[in-house]
Design brief:
By secondary structure, the chain is α/β, with parallel strands linked by helices. Helix content is 44%, strand content 19%.
Length: 218
């Protein structure tokens, strides 16, 4: 066991992507509920807050000028326009969390994942979540009862575009059962946390093992 005063292992950036309706948001919510060492990445946005939304909790609400300044100063891990607004991931909170041994969970699409991969590949673990079939995906979207048939048809067409990027991810998960899917991602995170490169203090720990054996007469 590593010494108690050793610096914590650096956290992991856990990226979850999927087509709408594949279960990504439900899986993310379960992980956050079960694991206090996992934080949800909070995006910055130029859109106005909705009722009940809090700055720094739901989003970081910033002006258009401030968002452009963040881009120019390389303060964002990734960013993209969405309709008439912009969304992006501030870098500083992510770095603080990782240095403290906390894990950051990202619920983003393949475009955001590509941008993060260019900047912080060594800290990133990406999982693409697939539906068990397109029929199941359609039934899930229809079962929400929140979208009209035209919107559902659009989401299904977008799903094929999202799925075409599955080869860009480290792990692929077919979400047949939500509990099993959560357990699988927990296993992935456990394995990634034990990578040699993520465990601070290992060199000192192994050196101390050798010194201990020598003091025992080895």
């Amino acid at each position: 066991m590593l010494k108690e005063n050793a610096p914590p292992a650096r956290g992991v950036m856990l990226i979850l992507s999927s087509p709408s309706g594949a279960g990504k948001t439900t899986i993310a919510r379960r992980l956050l509920e079960k694991h206090p060492d996992i934080q949800l990445s909070i995006s910055a946005t130029t859109r106005a807050p909705r009722p009940q939304e809090q700055d720094g909790v739901d989003y970081y609400f910033v002006s258009d000028d401030r968002f452009q300044e963040m881009i120019a100063n390389k303060e964002l891990l990734e960013y993209a326009p969405v309709f008439k607004n912009h969304y992006g991931t501030p870098l500083a909170p992510v770095e603080r969390a990782l240095n403290d041994g906390q894990h950051m969970l990202f619920d983003i699409d393949w475009q955001g994942a590509q941008q993060i991969k260019l900047l912080m590949r060594q800290d990133m673990v990406s999982v693409f979540i697939l539906p068990p079939s397109m029929a199941v995906l359609y039934d899930r979207l229809k079962g929400r009862q929140s979208d009209n048939p035209e919107v559902i048809a659009y989401r299904m067409s977008q799903a094929l575009e999202e799925i075409s990027h599955w080869t860009e991810y480290d792990y692929i998960l077919v979400n047949r059962d939500i509990d099993q899917s959560v357990a699988t991602i927990e296993s992935i995170l456990t394995a990634e946390k034990t990578r040699r490169s993520r465990q601070a203090g290992l060199t000192t720990f192994v050196r101390d093992l050798r010194m201990e054996w020598e003091t025992l007469g080895g």
